[in-house]
């Protein structure tokens, strides 16, 4: 899901590195697997090298393809190989922790004084009461819009789905809003309607709730009203959305901060000031809600460079490093104090996304969290294509969750 969302497909440069075993003194060399994209990896590499120079250890940064990273990490780590530090998508952390492939950091300095981190991203670093990760960057989804198109049409950024529907008549009908039919992009409708996928505390599957049925009806209603368009083929929906918005064909989309760099290369945003960012609409104004995303740093279980890895993460996740990342890449810090940095405040993208990130909806931090999207993706695309009614489609998702994902949960 996130590979589609980021559009990243880098070449995996290495499958080894890092050594094996847990005994002996610290090796003094940290192998870091960076799963970011081509717009981001040079900055992360530079900061990593600066951290190593200041910390008195060596670092080797290896860029890996995001869509291959999790499987390659698991394969390598199970054999006592792989990186010492891994940039993990937030949903991967509980899975890796459950499988014993990342180190418990609860008794290290990384788990102390975490009060500076935003609460929701920090939740992704924990599993069963223990700390296994440190938040690197966070993100969420916002309404991105073409300021000129909206101004020319006399339209304000919509705060509700009904307002978006009404604005479409002035913005070119269905071309006004491109609705990505991927599962992650269904979450603003679901969370905004008060729904969720599972209730992890109660161990219940709630994806087929009345709130979620209403949410998918709302999304489909935008298409039926000719207020939005979508791709018939789910495999190219994201790429089509990117092209439509970058070219100026679509006036509005919902996307995250990772997409901004690519939008600014498009014809519609040669003037970066033309890109507007607002919270996602909701059923009620001011009640929109979007999922939290982002990445964490984890340490491989059994690394021979644990102490150096801890020093490395302390530096990479510091407020100073996060401010540099925000300034140069427009990615959102996970530390509260970083938002007070003058360079961070001056970044228009970060400033616009700050309230969005702080209000982001926590996802279920369970080992199976990443597996919740595939069944929903099929159902959401089928609903938007008019192949299935929302209730029937979501009932199938609930059954798939029960049969193959969270088999110990009940359907509630």
Can you walk me through this structure?
The chain has 412 residues and is an alpha+beta fold. The chain has helices at 2-6, 41-55, 66-78, 93-98, 119-123, 147-152, 161-168, 187-192, 210-224, 237-247, 260-263, 306-316, 319-329, 342-346, 348-358, 373-384, 390-405; strands at 29-34, 58-63, 85-89, 126-127, 130-131, 134-139, 142-146, 198-199, 204-205, 252-255, 275-278, 293-299, 332-333, 410-411. The strands form four sheets. It has a six-stranded mixed sheet, sandwiched between helices. A three-stranded antiparallel sheet has the order 10-7-11. The radius of gyration is 21 Å and the shape is globular. The two termini are 26 Å apart. This is Carbohydrate ABC transporter substrate-binding protein, CUT1 family. One of its GO terms (molecular function) is carbohydrate transmembrane transporter activity. Belongs to the bacterial solute-binding protein 1 family.
